[in-house]
Amino acid sequence: MAKNILLVHGSPRKGGNSDMLADEFERGAKEAGHNVTRIDVGRAKIGGCMACEYCFSHEGECCQKDDMQQFYPLLHEADIIVYATPMYFYNFPAQLRAFQDRMFCGIAKPFGITQTALLFCFEDKDATRADPAVASFQVASEYCKQEVLGTVVVNNVYEKGAIAGNPGLEEAYNLGRSIQ
Fold first, then answer.
1. What is the pTM (predicted TM-score) of this model?
2. Helix, strand, coil: what percent of the chain each, to 5?
């Protein structure tokens, strides 16, 4: 049965390494027969959650009228959410964090997302530098009661295209292809 996958790209840099990871995941997921909707939150105008709880008294609607409004319907249609992102200053980029914070509205009007995955790349030569960010992703997934389908972590890539030929691309493809 085809799943609706929301592929959330968190980098403001077009054509970069996380974009390439997303491309491979998307190719694998589509070959497996799934519907993939890709959004680029890294270039979207999204303010952070204001903790005003307006969404609780307005059926999950956020009071902020920014680019996030176009993403809420997609979140409600998704079965799976996959994050493809670089690491900025040893964490997720601010643009992706704002998107995730604004998913708070999903408490008031729950999303049907039951599974998730992470495609993560960064410059540092030490692969363990990603561990805290990956742990944060895992804790958030547990909180949201989302099964983690997998994580692909690729280090030592920075310049556009540096990931070309890296086994992480095949891992991303295989992860997309493996979704049932």
1. 0.97
2. 40, 20, 40
Q: What is the mean pLDDT of each run of 10 residues along the chain (180 residues)?
A: 97 95 98 98 96 95 97 98 97 97 93 97 97 97 96 97 98 97
Encoded tokens for 27: 């190719």
Length of the chain as a residue count: 180
Structure-token pair, residue 87: 């690491």
Can you give the CATH number for the domain in which 151 is found? 3.40.50.360
Q: Beta strands 80-86 and 115-121: pairing type? A: parallel
Residue span of the structural domain in which 23 resides:
4-178
Q: Are 46 and 105 in contact (CB under 8 A)?
A: no
pLDDT at 28: 98
Output the six-digit token pair for 36.
């993939």
Distance of CA 77 to the CA centre of its chain: 15
CB 102 within 8 A of CB 69: no
Could you give the number of structural domains in the chain? Answer: 1
